[in-house]
C-alpha cells in the first residue's frame, strides 16, 4: 500500500481547504480516526497517511495540524525525535499533536518540551480528544493534568475527567477536596452562548466578536463557567457540560441572568 493512501481524493478537494493530517501506521486505526474527524471537524480536509513520508503529497498546502501516533514508543526514541524534527522542518506553521499509548506525566512533559501542542493518551474518551484537538487548532495547548492525592503520589488523568466521577482538586494546605458532579450549577443564557463558542474551539477574541462582547467580559464568563463546572480549564468545562447534557447527569432548566 502506498504511504499516502488517498491521493485521488486529495486531488478532488479544493486546494484552498485547510488540512489536518493523521499519521498512523495501522490501517484500521487510521480509518477510524479519519471518519471521526471528518464528522466532528467540518471545514477541514482530513488526510491520513502511514508515515511522515506522505507529507510530500501536501507540498504547498495549508496544513493546520498534524496528529502523529507514536504508539508505545518514548518521546526520546530516536525515530520519534527524528519524526518530530521532520514535521517542524517540513511544516513549520502546523501545530503538532501526539497520540500515545502512554499516559504518564513524564511522557507528556517530554512531548511539550519538543514543541508538541497536544498530547493525547489513547486511553481518553473520544469526546475529550475532539475537544482537545479543537483547543489546539484554536492556538491552545492540550495535555493530561497531573493530580496529586493525599499520599503525595501523582496520578496522570486526562485534561477532562469523566463527568460521571467526582473530581479531586488540590487545596492550599496540601490536602484534597472531592467535588461531586451534582455540584455543577446551571448556566445563564449568556454563559450558554459562550460555552457554545468554546465548543467550536474559538479563542476569546473571536468569541468577543461573535457575541458582541469585550474580551474582559468573555474572560469573566469563562471563569464563571469553569467554576460552575468545577473545571480546571476551558476544555474540561466543555466536555463536562456536554456529558452532563447528553444524559450523564440531568441539568435543570437554564436560569435567567
Automatic annotation (TrEMBL):
Tagged with keyword DNA-binding: yes
TM region positions: none
Pfam families: GerE
Record-level Gene Ontology MF annotations: DNA binding
SUPFAM superfamilies to which the protein is assigned, alphabetical: C-terminal effector domain of the bipartite response regulators, CheY-like
Domain HTH luxR-type: 180-245
SMART domains xrefs: HTH_LUXR
UniProt keywords, alphabetically: DNA-binding
Gene3D superfamilies cross-referenced by the UniProt entry: 3.40.50.2300, Winged helix-like DNA-binding domain superfamily/Winged helix DNA-binding domain
The protein's name: Helix-turn-helix transcriptional regulator
Biological source species: Bradyrhizobium icense
